[in-house]
Amino acid sequence: MDSRPIGIFDSGVGGLTVVKEVMNNLAGESIVYFGDTARVPYGSKSKQTVTRFSAQIIRFLLSQDVKAIIIACNTVSSNSIEELREMFPDIPMVEVVGPGVHMALRTTRSGKIGVVGTQATIASHKYPELLIEQNEALEVYGKACPLFVPLVEDGWANHNVAFEVVAEYLKPLLEKNIDSLILGCTHYPMLTHTIKKVVGDQVELINPAEEAAKRMEDILVKNNMTSDDEKPEYKFYVSDSEERFKEMAQIFLHKPIEHIATVPIEEY
Ligand code: DGL
């Protein structure tokens, strides 16, 4: 038993899609979440910057005595995971690209898989690389969708404008007859309703957060580090705009956010 919290971080509100999975599936675990709201988006930044920001966040999470970390951000997972594992070898870390790949391999029938993500995630080629490593016959089509994040951050996920934007970005992938679409960015599951309207029933949507929560559970079980706290604590930290984050988090998680604070993350 280990009642210390799990640390989860992302560039902004998107990582709440991972928080939700952990709350639902690892109900006894406390969580410390950090959203880098002052420096979002990460998806248009260089690998060096993304790694530096992530290292600061991990140092902050370690100062909060977390027992393990989920890197909820696909941009960080696809660009910086090797460096971060090297820098912090002692803390168990789960990222989200491996879990997304695993789910897509299970889901696809035709072998035609689409991946949507930020510019940095798509440019890293991490998803196609790992998928094709498992099965050379797969056809993987990536598409950067930079407008999805601001649509979500501004609360426009279910608006007609979102439908138009999603339809335009996904057109080339649908033309390839994909049967599975990896939502390779934490924000995108918040657009699920709109994406489903665009892709219809023939394309399975893959949210890597589901498998990432399972991987975390496996690690905790294997190391005797689970917690079955009846009243787990959820603490949220941001680098800017507490109120805005709180509002979005309460709507998305359907829970009151009782603990939220701003952290001067550049000092870590
Ligand atoms: N959270 C990031 C990701 O999963 C997307 C948002 C950003 O560009 O910072 O890739």
Tell me what the structure shows:
By secondary structure, the chain is of the alpha/beta class. The chain has two domains: 6-95 and 210-267, Rossmann fold (3-Layer(aba) Sandwich); 97-208, Rossmann fold. Helix content is 46%, strand content 17%. It is built from eleven helices and ten strands. The strands form two sheets. The protein has a six-stranded parallel β-sheet with strand order 4-3-1-2-9-10, sandwiched between helices. Helix 2 (47-63) crosses helix 3 and helix 8 (160-175) packs across helix 9. The longest helix has 17 residues, at 47-63. The radius of gyration is 18 Å and the shape is globular. It starts with 5 loop residues before the first strand and ends in a 6-residue tail after the last strand. It binds D-glutamic acid. D-glutamic acid binds at residues 10-12, 14, 40-43, 73-75, 117-118, 121, 149, 185-187. D-glutamic acid (DGL) binds at residues 10-12, 14, 40-43, 73-75, 117-118, 121, 149, 185-187.
